[in-house]
Design brief:
- With 386 residues, the chain is mainly alpha-helical.
- It has a domain of 267 residues.
- The protein contains 19 helices and no strands.
- Helix 11 packs antiparallel against helix 12 and helix 12 packs antiparallel against helix 13.
- The longest helix has 29 residues.
Length: 386
């Protein structure tokens, strides 16, 4: 049977777009592998399983004790994405992945967009209004500035633009998992995503030691050292570690300012995607432009996310609904992260080398220097009241 006849028969027999999916028998082994990794990684809603990686890390945190009021494994970014990713990497590299799992693992391409859509009610911008105009403007300005500087440095060092884009998203938002959120938008490779996530986490470990020293040296008041920490370091626990490293008052204010960084995160990864998408449209025939290469038009599912985010900003979603949806997000991202971990080898991740980390460090240090200078000017001029 020739190709045209096969296409005609397919079109006649399909009843809906679901017909393009693999059958249950083909995907079941991979889906079960993702499911069991997810339930042994995190404390997920509806599964009272005590033997999880999350509980093991919590027990070890109790043994280690708090570090500047933060748990060690929270500083290392242990959560519902990193735990199944780590477990999947270990299992896949130690025991291998059977071919019968691979079609089920391909469902990551459906799970990631769905999880991003469900994240929308989590970012209620109105929660940041109590911070005041100046802190919100600083958080927003440095989100876009960090993304822009990171993309510029990655081009300067000739880093693959897909790799540079996801580093820019993770570093700008202060959330390493924005790298994973950008994966389906940028069309990045799995190894690039994990490598970029690790770069952002490791730079956060450096920044959380460096920023309190620099802040005290230039004379940043403790209150605004808290603001500098949440904007200039990394994930929430690393930022709080840095702030409490500068004193209890700085740490207390960091918990107050962190909401400003958190609620504008979607603007960061949307900005990176739009910049790279427009760049690809302008340079269609440039072989070095790979980011968003497989994205022909603005994704419909991303439009749904933006619409729901706007509704969240208008407080359409009430708190119980917000928490219920986030429980589903944890399920979705845990399954997707398990699939990503099983799909990668340690060699593929390490093969991206040192250049990505160099980009992260250069852009991150530029951000810290400019941030401390901006806060100091605002304090001296009274824009940030003491």
């Amino acid at each position: 049977m020739n190709t045209n006849s096969m296409a005609i028969n397919y079109d006649l027999n399909r009843k809906s777009w679901f017909s393009s999916l693999y059958g249950l028998r083909e995907v079941l082994p991979g889906l079960l592998a993702m499911f069991f990794i997810a339930i042994f990684s995190n404390n997920l809603a509806g599964v009272p399983n005590p033997f999880t990686l999350e509980n093991l890390f919590a027990w070890l945190d109790g043994v280690i004790g708090p570090l500047h009021h933060q748990s060690f494994f929270q500083i290392m970014n242990s959560n519902f994405v990193w735990n199944p990713l780590l477990l999947g990497l270990i299992l896949g590299n130690v025991f291998g992945v059977p071919d019968c799992w691979k079609r089920g693992l391909s469902y990551i391409h459906m799970l990631m967009p769905l999880g991003i859509i469900m994240l929308a009610p989590h970012f209620m911008v109105g929660h940041a209004f109590k911070l005041g105009a100046a802190p919100i403007l600083i958080c927003t300005a440095f989100l876009f500035l960090t993304a822009t500087v990171t993309l510029w440095v990655s081009r300067l060092l000739r880093l693959d633009d897909r790799h540079g884009s996801i580093i820019a998203g993770g570093l700008a938002t202060g959330d390493p998992h924005a790298c994973a959120i950008l994966m389906p938008l940028i069309k990045a490779k799995g190894g690039q995503v994990v490598h970029a996530t690790a770069c952002v986490i490791v730079f956060g470990l450096i920044a959380m030691q460096l920023l309190p020293v620099l802040g005290e040296w230039v004379g940043i008041p403790p209150k605004y050292l808290g603001l500098a920490s949440v904007v200039g370091v990394g994930n929430g626990s690393q930022a709080l570690y840095a702030a409490f490293g500068g004193g209890y008052e700085a740490g207390r204010w960091a918990t107050w300012f962190d909401v400003g960084r958190h609620v504008i995160m979607p603007a960061g990864f949307l900005y990176v995607f739009i910049v790279m998408f427009v760049r690809k449209l302008r340079r269609r025939n440039d072989p070095e432009v790979l980011a968003t290469r497989g994205v022909k038009t603005f994704p419909v599912w991303l439009g749904v996310f933006v619409f729901l985010w706007v509704l969240a900003c208008l407080h359409v979603f009430k708190e119980p609904a917000h928490h219920a949806v986030f429980a589903m997000v944890k399920w979705d991202f845990s399954l997707a992260a398990a699939a990503l971990g099983l799909s990668l080898s340690f060699r593929e991740i390490a093969g991206h080398g040192f250049k990505g980390f160099a980009v992260t460090c250069i852009a991150g240090l530029i951000r810290i220097a400019l941030l401390l200078a901006a806060i100091l000017v605002c304090v001296k001029t009274g824009l940030l009241p003491a």
